[in-house]
Design brief:
alpha/beta, Rossmann fold, 8-stranded mixed β-sheet, 8 strands, binds adenosine-5'-diphosphate, binds magnesium ion
Length: 266
């Protein structure tokens, strides 16, 4: 990909699937790191009270004084009071911890409760090329906030039995947000993860996903490898932890696909 002469405004991507353990957090970290390697300025938003994205980047969520939660709920607080630099040049993090679980309840009584995250991110958009929001495994108000803020959605799907179960509910939610809150939202792609080419089963699931979603499916498929759980322990992306690995190559390929698909934001 060509280097950029100048940065921003950012395209916002929501990494979303209400099922847990499908590779949302892993894909957020590694797509982000691969885009940063290509010279893009990247902001990752941990939008899951479990704080797995923060942990995966070597941050201890329990030691944080301010998080995305404060940015959502407190007027007057600016993003740079919450932002953390990561070890990857050009990639920053808005971290979270369990505090964020209170936002789900507290936002209910707010005016424009669905657009709290969009409001919080707005001042940051000129500084970045991509913002990637790591959603929690639910379709609740936090996820609706992520979809309202986003330009596009990436849905990681694990190549396993029942991968497609629940996806209809997710696409309905995306359509509703599109109708009522964010008409420009588009489904950028379905990302097949944890693919095992040695099993007939994985191949069958992938074929069914392609049958169901056609060209919405990214050509990049993320293989199943123990390297990914290892990177979580190491607290860094696979692109730096095992820079020549198959997994790192896969997320670089995904980054190139995202750059190809990404239309400039007007
Ligand atoms: P989610 O955020 O959707 O819950 P994660 O990204 O946390 O999913 O992944 C769940 C678990 O699976 C983690 O332990 C992660 O390290 C592991 N994992 C993610 N992607 C892969 C992969 N391609 N191969 C093997 N393990 C993976
Ligand atoms: Mg996660």
């Amino acid at each position: 990909p060509a280097p950029l002469a100048e940065h921003g405004p950012a395209q916002i991507i929501a990494m979303c699937n209400q099922k847990g353990g499908v590779g949302k957090t892993t894909s957020t970290i590694n797509l982000g790191a691969a885009l940063a390697e290509y010279g893009r300025r990247v902001l990752l938003v941990d939008f899951d009270p479990q704080g797995a994205l923060s942990v995966g980047l070597g941050v201890n969520p329990m030691e944080l004084d301010v998080t995305v939660y404060n940015l959502l709920m407190e007027r007057g607080l600016t993003a740079d009071e919450v932002l953390l630099k990561t070890a990857v040049p050009g990639m920053d993090l808005l971290p979270s911890n369990i505090d964020l679980s209170a936002a789900e309840v507290q936002l209910v009584s707010e005016v424009a409760r669905e657009s709290a995250l969009a409001r919080a991110l707005k001042p940051l958009l000129p500084d970045y090329d991509f913002v990637i929001i790591d959603c929690q495994p639910s379709l609740g108000l936090l996820t609706v906030n992520a979809l309202t803020a986003a330009h596009s959605v990436i849905v990681p799907l694990e190549c396993e039995f029942f991968a497609l179960r629940g996806v209809a509910l997710l696409t309905e939610t995306i359509e509703k947000v599109c109708e009522r809150l964010n008409p420009d939202l588009r489904l950028d792609g379905i990302l097949a993860t944890m693919y095992d080419s040695r099993t007939v089963h994985s191949r069958e699931v992938l074929a069914r996903v392609v049958e169901a979603f056609g060209e919405h499916v990214f050509h990049t498929v993320i293989g199943r490898t123990v390297r990914f759980p290892e990177t979580t322990v190491a607290g860094e992306p696979i692109t730096t932890y095992a820079t020549n690995s198959v997994g790192a190559a896969a997320y670089r390929q995904l980054a190139r696909e995202v750059l190809d698909r990404c239309r400039p934001v007007e």
